[in-house]
UniProtKB/TrEMBL annotation:
The keyword Transmembrane applies. Residues 272-299 form a coiled coil. It is a multi-pass membrane protein. GO terms for cellular component: plasma membrane. This is non-specific protein-tyrosine kinase. It comes from the Bacteria. It is an enzyme of class 2 (transferase). Belongs to the CpsD/CapB family. Belongs to the etk/wzc family. It comes from Sphingobacterium gobiense. It catalyses: L-tyrosyl-[protein] + ATP = O-phospho-L-tyrosyl-[protein] + ADP + H(+). The chain crosses the membrane at residues 35-53, 495-514. Its EC number is 2.7.10.2. Residues 580-707 form the AAA domain.
């Protein structure tokens, strides 16, 4: 192994060293080494996805499409018919955007909920949760007003006997008789009609406030105009039952159509009633005039009228017709004015009674819309409600505008009447020359023409309005009836399975990441390389053997080969030296174990090796070798008369390995290590042995190792996987940087190979052997030991 050239005087830089693909290979290695966790978690993820799909209630989408007669876009259903010109008599023009807002209103949804009695739902109680059902073996009927439901209530129905059933939930338990009303607090009066009582088990029902159910359904309803070029509206309703969802959406559309026709018919009926009242009055007046003419002719015995009378009558008829039209319009204006000034009862204003300008028609349309909107709000609110008061204020403002418009129109008609009257007076002066009897007849005939013109005008308007009402159809048509999708919208089976598998595979990655993030100990060679700049002399794998000596003459195990590889690397590290110091950051990192086996490995080269137990505070080599305690280093330093030979003893593990014990534990071990006799001892031993291995205390705890560094040629610093703290790896680098101990090389101990990118690090740091190569073949593990 080549020695790294390091300038120990330079300040150390502990930045992470990376290769281009090292992180990727490390990640792949971690995944491959823990493949069974990924397989297990993937299976668990799929199992959880299956359970989720098994016990989750599916939600289906129900689609429907409406075609709306939008006058802005054309294509209305009446546009090509003979009655198309009369469609404007009944109210406002249609707009797709307006109809979308109508379909989204809570009032419309409330009507659907009341019609379908959707505030009562049934369910089948299962092992995990309750499943909604469309039909149950019993029927629940609410006998009181649905608005009396104040809170949601869920009850399970069970048979007690042939006539009695038990209603229960987590807080309530009571009995009720079949087909007989019973009161439920916060709900109202209910009656349950059942078939065979034996079928009631595991069924129940829910009662919820109408407003809550309507709000829930509104959230499930989507109303959109997907194509702005056509007047179609797409409706999407989400529900747990396909059949029930189609039924609910169909009812919603029916209620929308009914409401649309109702608004149109209200205006038409009001107009017809107004015209009918005027027709009755005009008919009576016309009949009276005709009776007067008949009596006049009879009394005057008139047979023919002279030619002059015909000419005068013809001229008078023209002016009379004009006056009649003005009088009719004035009468209509007076009626409308009286109608508008009556603010005790807000009603819709008849439309198309008189020929008005576009502005007045727009005011009537706006006024009628506000009145209808107020009536709808009063169905669920009082007149003190701010929304109702706001609408009432708007109605009052529009009414004032209409009254002002009527007054202005009346003034114009009065001026026109004066002009016609002047012309009529001119003709009357000529008629004065006609005999008195003929003149009287002309007056009566003129009055008859006025009343007859009024009658014809009102009769025409009545017929137009009646035809228009008959032609009233909804401004929307169902072109695609509600249909539910075959597959549920939620949950999506494929997505859930993929998500379950992905989460199952991600979970081990997260656990591994958090484990590495929260672990403060060295977990592998990557941690040593990342936090350290010193050379690594060797790597010792984890050993399951209880014997402390793993290196023998005949040993071919992988761990023995690792010690041989470290022995080879040590020859280059010593560079002719022979004294080696073993230390670490703390106790328990394997200094004595590595020193003992390395000594045997060196002795196998037929070298004289001395192992010195210099951990004077807590010696362990003697115990590991099973030797009795005797005289050692502390005795030699303290007793000046003692010779070196008295403290050297055979180790018992190899004939070329001797041992110097620590001796008696002294009160001042640091002082003994720098005693002159200690230096003398080191020089004497250097002349007698080829290698001297010193087992020192941890440098991270006491200063003994720093004191012994003056006697050695190389310091081996032990790092133990899964035991040494990551921050402690900086200690040997600091020692070298501050010239306290040098040179230092690391020995990584107890490395557990787990496969992947670093699977062979445990067997020689690139120079050792993997299982099944040149070392002993391990026994094959059983399948349950993977």
């Amino acid at each position: 192994m080549s020695k790294k050239n390091i300038d120990w005087e330079d300040e150390f830089d502990f930045e992470e060293k990376k290769s281009d693909n090292k992180d990727l290979l490390r990640f792949v290695g971690r995944v491959l080494s823990n493949w069974y966790w990924f397989v297990l978690c993937g299976i668990l993820g799929l199992a959880f996805a299956f359970l989720y799909l098994r016990y989750t209630i599916p939600v289906y989408k129900i689609h429907a499409k409406l075609l709306v007669s939008d006058d802005k876009k054309g294509g209305g259903m009446l546009s090509s018919s003979a009655l198309g010109d009369l469609s404007g008599l009944m109210g406002a023009k249609n707009s797709v955007d307006n109809e979308v807002e109508v379909l989204r209103t809570a009032d419309l949804m409330r009507e659907m909920v009341l019609s379908e009695k959707a505030y009562i739902g049934y369910f089948n109680k299962g092992t995990v949760h309750s499943v909604p059902v469309v039909e149950a073996p019993f029927h629940v009927e609410l006998l009181t007003n649905p608005d009396s439901i104040e809170r949601a209530f869920t009850l399970q129905v069970e048979p007690a006997d042939e006539e009695t059933i038990v209603l229960s939930n987590a807080d309530t338990l009571f009995h009720a008789r079949r087909d007989e009303p019973f009161a439920l607090r916060g709900v109202g009066l209910l009656k349950i009609t059942t078939g065979r009582v034996s079928f009631l088990a595991d069924y129940g029902f829910r009662v919820a406030p109408v407003r809550t159910v309507a709000a829930t359904f509104n959230n499930r309803l989507s109303v959109e105009v997907t194509n702005k070029n056509v007047s179609t509206i797409d409706l999407i309703f989400e529900y747990t039952s396909q059949k029930r969802g189609e039924q609910l959406l169909t009812t919603l559309i029916d209620k929308y159509v009914e409401g649309n026709l109702h608004d149109k018919n209200v205006i038409a009926d009001s107009t017809l009633a107004f015209i009918s009242a005027r027709l009755r009055k005009i008919t009576e007046e016309l009949a009276g005039v005709e009776d007067r003419i008949s009596g006049y002719k009879k009394n005057a015995q008139l047979a023919d009228i002279s030619e002059q009378s015909k000419i005068l009558l013809q001229n008078s008829a023209d002016f009379t017709r004009n006056l009649a039209e003005v009088e009719t319009q004035l009468a209509a204006l007076d009626a409308i004015s009286i109608y508008l000034r009556d603010n005790t009862n807000l009603r819709v204003v008849p439309s198309a009674v008189i020929q008005q300008d576009v502005g007045f028609n727009a005011l009537i349309q706006r006024y009628n819309e506000l009145v209808l909107q107020r009536e709808r709000l009063l169905l669920a609110n009082t007149e003190d409600n701010p929304l109702v008061q706001n609408i009432t204020a708007q109605i009052a403002g529009v009414r004032q505008d209409m009254i002002a418009n009527v007054a202005s129109t009346r003034r114009q008609l009065e001026l026109a009447k004066q002009g016609q009257q002047q012309l009529a007076n001119s003709v009357s002066s000529q008629i004065n020359q006609v005999p008195t009897i003929e003149r009287g007849y002309i007056d009566l005939a003129r009055l008859q023409q006025i009343k007859q013109a009024q009658y014809i005008f009102l009769q025409e308007k009545w017929e137009e309005t009646a035809i228009g009402r008959t032609a009233n159809v909804s401004n929307s048509k169902v072109i695609d009836s509600p249909k539910a999708e075959k597959e549920p919208f939620s949950p999506k089976r494929k997505v859930i399975y993929v998500l379950g598998l992905v989460l199952g595979l991600v979970f081990p990655i997260v656990v591994l990441y958090l484990r590495d993030l929260l672990n403060v100990r060295v977990q592998g060679m990557e941690d040593v390389e990342r936090l350290n700049l010193l050379p690594i002399l060797g790597v010792i794998a984890h050993s399951d053997e209880s014997d402390q000596v793993v290196v023998t003459k005949t040993s071919r195990s992988p761990i023995a080969e690792q010690f041989r590889a470290m022995r080879t690397n040590l020859e280059f590290a010593l560079n002719g030296g022979k004294r080696i110091l073993f230390t670490s950051s703390m106790s328990g990192e394997g200094k004595s174990y590595v020193a003992l086996n390395l000594a045997i490995s060196l002795a196998l080269l037929d070298k004289k090796v001395l192992l010195m137990e210099l951990d004077l505070r807590k010696p362990s080599v003697t115990t590991k070798l099973g030797l009795p305690a005797g005289k050692g280093f502390s005795h030699y330093v303290v007793r000046s008369e003692m010779q070196v030979g008295e403290i050297i003893m055979p180790s018992g593990v190899h004939e070329n390995v001797d041992l110097i014990q620590a001796g008696a534990i002294p009160p001042n071990p640091a002082e003994l290590l720098i005693h002159p006799r200690a230096k003398e001892l080191m020089e004497t031993l250097s002349q007698c042995y080829d290698y001297i291995l010193m087992d020192a205390p941890p440098v991270g705890m006491v200063t003994d190792a720093q004191l012994l560094s003056r006697y050695v040629d190389c310091c081996l610093y032990l790092v133990r996987q899964g035991y040494t703290y990551k921050e402690q790896i900086r200690i040997p680098n600091d020692l070298v940087a501050t010239n306290k101990i040098k040179p230092i090389q690391l020995v990584v101990n107890d490395v557990q190979a787990k496969g992947g990118y670093y699977s062979n690090y445990g067997y020689g740091y690139g120079y050792g052997y993997g299982y099944g190569d040149y070392g002993e073949v391990n026994k094959k593990r059983k399948w349950w030991q993977f």
